[in-house]
Design a protein that fits this description.
ten-stranded antiparallel beta barrel; two-stranded antiparallel ribbon; 18 strands
């Protein structure tokens, strides 16, 4: 087999392009994703002509896997957020009570910023850097009172609310990126909240909730020069468990909570790389199927609200603790895959 004598360098998106992508949708950050080391898959590579070395494609597989391990937890944290219903603690108080929240949650995230060089001798470590960039996810949430609970003193105990909602992700085509979503870009959210205490004039609202959120199934293509990276059927979901408390004082309210998130990301990747090796045009197609990343992360957050009981502006800040740190071959400056991240939310809440 002949040895290749080149080092192939590809530009990742510019800072401006990364900002556009992050602002449009958190899922677009998965455009260069592949597999997690926790569920590593064999990289299948086919080259034409067959006699041309394809080690640069194998290095591309490993770099894609490491980028996925770095980005996937950030998308999951943005999808989960903090309080399942911004500005609320306990249950609503029975059938006929409704509340709605329109929100955007964003992680104070990091994305790779350096050029990517593919080694011709197989997987090799590179410093991909880490540039600060927001990772936002918009959503609409609703709580529907089902059971008032049992009266105890100045409050009710054991009230039950149904939690539903949607996460929206539009299709986008811009510069070298194309994003397509299934189901009109909408994914359903469902959960339940049990009130330990219903909020009253003297008693704060306290509740426990479980919520499952999803991003719409997404397929993304990234074009650089004459190469194509396709990320197919990307699925990101979270299951969030929360203990929350909230109390209103006139037009102001303050609340907070703790919880745990279980993040699950799945995708498949196909990279088509074209290059001239020792004067011979060559093509390598690298494929990774059935890829998955799972992790658990604790979280803590506080809410502050301004407005009347029926309509309010809510701000939230939180911290998602580090999960199991991923040991990646490639590095990201001074950052690590699956480390702790701060996040924030802004939303408008309505109650009837």
């Amino acid at each position: 087999m002949r040895r290749a004598s080149f080092t192939r360098t590809a530009r990742i998106p510019t800072a401006r392009a990364r900002t556009v992508i992050a602002s449009a949708s958190a899922a677009m950050l998965l455009a260069t994703a592949a597999a997690s080391p926790a569920h590593a898959q064999t990289c299948s590579v086919a080259s034409t002509p067959a006699s041309v070395p394809n080690q640069f494609a194998q290095d591309a597989c490993v770099k894609a896997a490491d980028i996925f391990s770095f980005l996937a937890p950030q998308v999951g944290v943005a999808l989960s957020g903090g309080n399942v219903m911004l500005g609320e603690g306990g249950s609503l108080g029975g059938w006929g009570k409704r509340s709605f929240v329109v929100r955007v949650t964003a992680v104070d995230g990091r994305v790779p910023e350096n050029d990517i060089s593919f080694s011709t001798s197989g997987p090799a470590s590179s410093n991909l850097g880490a540039e600060r960039a927001p990772v936002p996810v918009p959503s609409f949430d609703a709580a529907i009172g089902l059971f008032r609970g049992i009266p105890v003193g100045l409050t009710n105990v054991g009230g039950v609310d149904l939690l539903v909602g949607v996460t929206y992700l539009p299709g986008v085509t811009r510069d070298q990126f194309a994003l397509e979503t299934e189901g009109n870009g909408i994914a359903a959210t469902v959960g339940v909240r049990v009130g330990l205490l219903q909020e009253s004039a003297l008693v704060p609202g306290v509740g426990v909730s479980v919520m499952r959120r999803r991003l719409p199934t997404t397929s993304i293509s990234y074009f650089t020069g004459n190469d194509t990276l396709s990320v197919r059927d990307t699925k990101v979901s979270t299951t969030s468990i929360r203990l929350t408390a909230n109390k209103r004082f006139g037009i102001f309210a303050i609340g907070g909570g703790i919880g745990e998130d279980r993040l699950d990301s799945r995708t498949s990747v196909q990279a088509t790389l074209n290059e001239t090796v020792q004067g011979v045009p060559a093509r390598a197609v690298a494929t990774l199927d059935g890829l998955r990343d799972e992790t658990k992360r604790g979280t803590v957050f506080v809410n502050a609200s301004l407005g009347l009981a029926m309509a309010q502006l809510v701000l939230e800040v939180g911290q998602s603790r580090a999960g199991d740190i991923r040991n990646t071959l490639n590095t990201f400056g001074d950052r690590e895959a699956n480390e702790a991240y701060r996040y924030g939310s802004i939303g408008f809440g309505f109650r009837f």
